[in-house]
Design goal:
Alpha-D-Glucose-1,6-Bisphosphate, Chain A, domain 4; alpha+beta; 10-stranded mixed beta sheet; 244 residues; globular; 7 helices; 24% helix
Length: 244
């Protein structure tokens, strides 16, 4: 039961994508390497001013960066590949780079399901040469409030990525989420080391099997990243001629 609860909590991460832990207010902790698992390096933020330890994981997945970007941005079909995700809808599509979403995640009985309302935005960190999908919890009048649910809180979390080749992508995932309610913090901290790897493998598989074109509004940001990296953007023919 505890393992099931802990893994479900991590399902929130597909929509909890915000700035890195270094930017959290009042956090005087530091990253400490915890383990290497399945090719990924796991870090925990020690001495952080929170009972739920922030987590970061770094590694390379076998999927093209533009397919990853579009699968993360695409709301329709999220339930097909995100573990325990019952529903995800767009509350407001601001522009191709910004969207406000509602999601509902299944929790094992008798724990209430968790809902999230998030502001999601794609940003380019030119200094680190990373594209970040960033999010934060926000109020949204009129958002669904299903019965027997609890609204989780996203302090920060992020997915940063850059291509290392046409078919491989470096991923840096940072997460802090409080599911609220009665789930003990020690349960979250105990199991959190393995959650992100399962999520990233699911993202990898989705991006391999669903070769979706990157929407035009996101192409300039990827092209700018490739230029900063001194890559020939024509290496990604899909950005030029629209091929899948």
């Amino acid at each position: 039961m505890l393992k099931r609860i802990s893994f479900v909590i991590f399902s929130f991460l597909i929509t909890t994508l915000s700035l890195s832990a270094e930017s959290s207010n009042g956090d005087d902790g530091h990253w400490v390497k915890e383990a290497v698992q399945d090719g990924f390096t796991i870090y925990l933020r020690k001495k952080a001013n929170t009972s739920i330890l922030p987590l970061r994981i770094e590694g390379v997945i076998n999927a093209p960066v533009d397919y990853i970007m579009e699968n993360l941005r695409k709301v329709d079909g999220s339930e097909d590949w995100t573990p325990d995700l019952l529903q995800k809808v767009t509350l407001k599509d601001v522009n191709p780079r910004i969207a406000i979403t509602f999601s509902l995640t299944d929790m094992p009985w008798p724990i209430y399901d968790r809902r999230l309302i998030l502001h999601n935005e794609l940003k380019l960190d030119k200094d680190r040469k990373l594209l970040f999908v960033v999010s934060k919890s926000m109020p949204f009048p009129g958002a669904p409030v299903p019965e027997r649910t609890i609204e989780a809180f996203v302090g920060y979390s992020s997915i940063g990525f850059r291509p290392v080749s046409k078919d491989k992508t470096y991923i840096e995932l940072t997460a802090f989420i409080d599911p609220r309610g009665s789930i003990p913090h020690w349960v979250i901290n105990f199991y959190q080391k393995s959650w992100p790897i399962k999520f990233l493998r699911a993202l990898e598989n989705r991006s391999q099997t669903h070769r979706v074109k990157l929407r035009p509004g996101l192409k300039p940001m990827l092209q700018e990243l490739l230029q900063i990296m001194q890559w020939d953007k024509t290496s990604f023919d899909r950005l030029v001629d629209g091929r899948p």
